[in-house]
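The following record pairs a protein chain with its ligand, fe (ii) ion.
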Amino acid sequence: MTGYYETGSSPACRSCICEFNRFTEALFWSRIMQEHALFIKLGLPANEPELREKAQEFIERFKELRRRLNKACRLEGELLRDLIDAVKDIIEFKAELLRLLIQCKAEPGSNYPLLLDHIRREAMHFLELLRKPEPKEPLFILLKEQVFWLRIMKEHIEFIIHLLDPSERELLNQAEGLRRTFSRLLETARDLESMAQTRPRTFNTVLRFTENVITAAMELRNFKAAAFELAELCELLSIVSTPLLLDHVRREADKFIDEMEAILPALKKCNVGKDKCKQ
Ligand SMILES: [Fe+2]
Ligand SMILES: [Fe+2]
């Protein structure tokens, strides 16, 4: 492995072991974190100036970290520590907002509780990758990522359904079909992940399932890209606070597809038994 300080494909697989590249992940996720802070701010009601101010501080904090990341050639030392601290703090901010909503101690504005939980989970995923991007066998990393991302993808569709205007019947119908597909895929991924705990030497069904997952994720990715284009052209009726949200979820779908496409060839190669891939 080339090490996870310099940028490179993430995850990268070699000799039946896959490993995330911390720097590449940081470049992707720090932009996501900055945008989460913006979406929270836009969703907060006008009578919550302090929370809006706090959200704005996170926008600026991640903007600055991204500027430092773009100038750096390695992710280590102070930069890594500052990034980890910022991610920990934004996790706590999202959790604090969610707690307030759950206990009816703040007005929700347009931040759904599930959206706050969703972006909190994304931040926790990022923190885990920053702290310990552990090398893993392709089967385990693939199923772990599938369970994480399929839940995220299913929720994206649920948010889009609740943000589209009720008159957008064609798009809502399409989204409803995608929601059913992704609910099924998520359930299956959880089953397969559980079965993989028995550590089978080969698991061909996972290969077939992953091909289906990639096809479905491409369809969802195109749906999000089309919705973003429509919103940009002002041809979409919705309460989406900014078209950037649709681009954001499209980028997350692309990240999911990229990860599956990086791990699948390694799994195919290693699925024949452990001895063969050590050549
Ligand atoms: Fe996100
Ligand atoms: Fe997301």
